[in-house]
Amino acid sequence: MRRMFLVMVIAIVATIQVSAQDSNRQMTAQQRTEYRIKQMDEKLKLTDEQKTKIRELYADFNKQKHPRDKRREAREKLTADISLLLTAEQQVTYKQMIEQSIAEMKKGKRNRTKE
């Protein structure tokens, strides 16, 4: 009886853990856009007009279904379009943000393969 109870508790805890992880990863395109704009605003101090235009660029980007082989090109175009909306000082910081993000992604990929 104790063994069965213990197995049930472990199963419940494991189920809760998995569902919590899945819900954290599942953000809608709009939620991702707002998160990105918030991150950019913290570092770049965007104007309301810049936020609106960036939101529109992300909306257009998210509407399109990019084939796998064209995604990088599409993201690069989005990044370039966003950069055009920024001041010279903001562009420098934005470029650093992008480079840091790329470095973190590469580092994350390497860490996953080691596991």
How does this structure look, described?
This protein has about 120 residues and is an all-alpha fold. Helix content is about 85%, strand content about 0%. It is built from five helices and no strands. The protein has helices spanning about 1-25, 30-45, 50-65, 70-85, 90-115. The longest helix has 27 residues, at about 90-115. The model has no long low-confidence stretch (mean pLDDT about 85).
Question: What are the main properties of this structure?
Answer:
mainly alpha, single chain, 115 residues, 5 helices
Structural class: mainly alpha
Q: Could you give a short account of the major beta sheet?
A: none
Order of helices and strands: HHHHH
Name the average pLDDT. 84
Helical fraction equals over 70%
How would you briefly describe this protein structure?
The protein is mainly α and 115 residues long. 84% of the residues lie in helices and 0% in strands. The chain has five helices and no strands.
Helices, strands, pairings?
Blueprint: H1 2-25, H2 29-44, H3 48-63, H4 71-84, H5 88-114
Helix pairs in contact: 2-3, 3-4
